[in-house]
Design a protein that fits this description.
The chain is mainly α and about 100 residues long. It has a single domain, classed as Methane Monooxygenase Hydroxylase, Chain G, domain 1, CATH 1.20.58. Helix content is about 95%, strand content about 0%. Helix 2 runs antiparallel to helix 3. The longest helix is centred in the first third of the chain and has 41 residues. The radius of gyration is 19 Å and the shape is elongated.
Length: about 100
């Protein structure tokens, strides 16, 4: 049981890191919307170019989020194989619930 408790703590910590990255990415996107709107309103081509350039950073962040999420789900699958069948379902439910709650 100690191993499972440690695994949950580690998973929660990693999930929180993933949530923070998603929140940071959301903040950047929000800033880009403001910048893009201002660039269009003022017909500012340079500001538009800078806004477009920032998009590459957000794309990299999105790939990092996706990779980390896939990594976590792979970890969950490995953990599920260690548990007995009835506990696998409960463990998967808990993990899925925590993940969906953290990304809301």
């Amino acid at each position: 049981m100690l191993v499972l408790a440690h695994t949950r703590t580690a998973f929660d910590s990693q999930l929180q890191g993933l949530s923070l990255l998603i929140a940071e990415m959301g903040g950047l996107v929000e800033g880009q919307i403001v910048e893009a709107t201002a660039a269009l309103s003022n017909r500012d081509a340079e500001r538009a170019r800078q806004t477009i350039a920032t998009d590459a950073l957000i794309d990299r962040m999105q790939r990092a989020v996706e990779e980390k999420a896939i990594e976590k789900f792979q970890d969950i699958l490995v953990q599920g194989h260690v548990l007995e069948p009835t506990r696998r379902v409960k463990y998967a439910d808990v993990v899925l619930d925590r993940f969906t709650t953290s990304v809301k």
